[in-house]
Structure formats: structure tokens, C-alpha cells
Write a structure and sequence with these properties.
- It is a single chain.
- The chain has four helices and three strands.
- A three-stranded mixed beta sheet has the order 2-1-3.
- Helix 1 packs antiparallel against helix 2.
- The two termini are 34 Å apart.
- It binds zinc ion.
- The site of zinc ion has 8 residues, from loops.
């Protein structure tokens, strides 16, 4: 029975390895997807900034056209002022000129504001373009490394499964099925008993059961957590006390 339990213990180690490998394998596509999402997020930001830049440039051209138009009007009003024949016409032309000048000032102020915005958009676009291309490079590397790593993990899982299959032939079917049932539910299905306690749930075993377990003729399960118990002699009394990490 001891040999069979030892084989099962070895098999459990392989199962835990397979579990760990599978978890890591599963995390790789998630990491790749996260990087891909970052790339597309920056891509969207860039697209919005480019759109705003286009709008701002259009807005700026409109203001400049408006200033040109007002400048033409100003020239005409100045000519009118020159030709004014009396005080009334003079005042009217002067009022027109004042209004036009005010308009021009306002349009020019708007032009300056929009030019400032354009400058900011250009800077942001420049920065995000660099960031975007770096992220794209990072994505490519992540994909390549990830695919390579996944191939490694798949092959490692395959090898471990092969070793597990070999090992399982050394464990009686009934015991193996029992182990697998518990493993599915609790992960760790086979646990050592140390100093009379199940290390799966920490419950103290009855002395009679503990004595029988030490003989090693029969399979025992913990009455509390139902895990399969393996008797372990404490070889180094300090090893337990030193486990402080
Ligand atoms: Zn237990």
C-alpha cells in the first residue's frame, strides 16, 4: 500500500504541475488581448485627435476668410469716408468702419485661439503617434513571445500527461478514482498527516486511526475533509518551526 500511495503522491505532483502550466497557458492569450486593446485604445484617441485637428483647421480657414471679407468691406468704407459730403455721411462711414474693425478684431482673436488649439492637437498627435508605434512593436513582441511560450507549455503539458499516464498504471483503479473525485473538488486530494493532524484541514486524528495509519496497510481518508491521508514522519523537528515565509 505504501508504494501505491507513493505513486499517487507523485501523480498528484504531476497534476499540480499540469494545473499550474494550464493556468499560465491560459493567461498568455489574455495578456496578448490586453496589449491589443491598449493599441486599439491609443489608435482611437489618435483618430479623435486627428478629427479635431481637421475641424480646427477648417474653423481657422473660415475665420481667415471672414477677416479677408471684412478687410474688403473696410477698404470700401474708407473710400466712402473720403467721399463723405457732409457731417452725417461722415459719421455714418466712421460708424461702419468702427464696426468692421471690431469684427476683424474678434475674428482675429478667434483665429489666434484656434491656432493655439491646433498647436496642442498637433503635439498630442505627435506624442500619441510615437506611443502607438511603440505599443504596436510591443504587441508584436508579446504575440511572438506568447506563441513561443504557448508551444513550450503545450509540449510540457503533453510530457507531464504522458508521465502521469505511466504513473497511474501503478495506482489501483479504485484509489485513482477516489483521488480524482477529491482532486476535482478540492485540488489537493492527498495530504500528509504530520504530528497526528491532517494537513489538509488541520483537524487532529483520533489516536487509534493515527496508529493504524502509521502501519501503512490501509488507505485512510480524513474524517473531516475526506482527503486521502499519507503518514509522514517528522525527520527534522526544526523544519516546521523554520517555515516562516
Ligand atoms: Zn482533513
Amino acid at each position: 500500500m505504501q508504494e501505491e500511495l507513493a505513486a499517487l503522491e507523485e501523480l498528484q505532483k504531476l497534476d499540480l504541475d499540469i494545473l499550474e502550466l494550464s493556468n499560465e497557458l491560459g493567461s498568455i492569450p489574455i495578456a496578448i488581448e490586453e496589449t491589443r486593446e491598449n493599441v486599439s485604445h491609443i489608435g482611437e484617441i489618435l483618430e479623435r485627435e486627428r478629427e479635431r485637428l481637421r475641424e480646427s483647421e477648417e474653423w481657422r480657414r473660415d475665420r481667415e476668410k471672414a477677416v479677408e471679407l471684412q478687410s474688403d468691406l473696410l477698404t470700401k468704407s474708407k473710400a466712402k469716408l473720403q467721399l463723405a459730403r457732409n457731417e452725417k455721411e461722415n459719421k455714418a462711414a466712421q460708424r461702419e468702419i468702427d464696426t468692421i474693425r471690431k469684427n476683424i478684431q474678434e475674428r482675429e482673436k478667434e483665429t489666434l485661439d484656434v491656432m493655439e488649439a491646433i498647436e496642442q492637437y498637433r503635439k498630442a498627435i505627435e506624442e500619441h503617434t510615437v506611443e502607438f508605434s511603440e505599443l504596436e512593436k510591443h504587441l508584436k513582441a508579446t504575440e511572438e513571445e506568447g506563441n513561443e511560450r504557448m508551444r513550450e507549455m503545450e509540449s510540457a503539458i503533453g510530457n507531464t500527461e504522458e508521465r502521469r499516464a505511466q504513473l497511474s498504471s501503478r495506482v489501483p483503479d479504485k484509489l485513482l478514482r477516489q483521488y480524482e473525485r477529491i482532486h476535482k473538488r478540492l485540488g489537493l486530494a492527498l495530504v500528509p498527516v504530520i504530528e497526528g493532524s491532517c494537513t489538509g484541514c488541520n483537524i487532529g486524528l483520533q489516536p487509534q486511526m493515527y496508529n493504524l495509519l502509521q502501519r501503512g496497510n490501509k488507505i485512510f481518508t480524513c474524517p473531516n475533509c475526506f482527503r486521502i491521508l499519507v503518514y509522514k514522519k517528522v525527520e527534522d523537528p526544526e523544519s516546521g518551526a523554520e517555515k516562516q515565509d
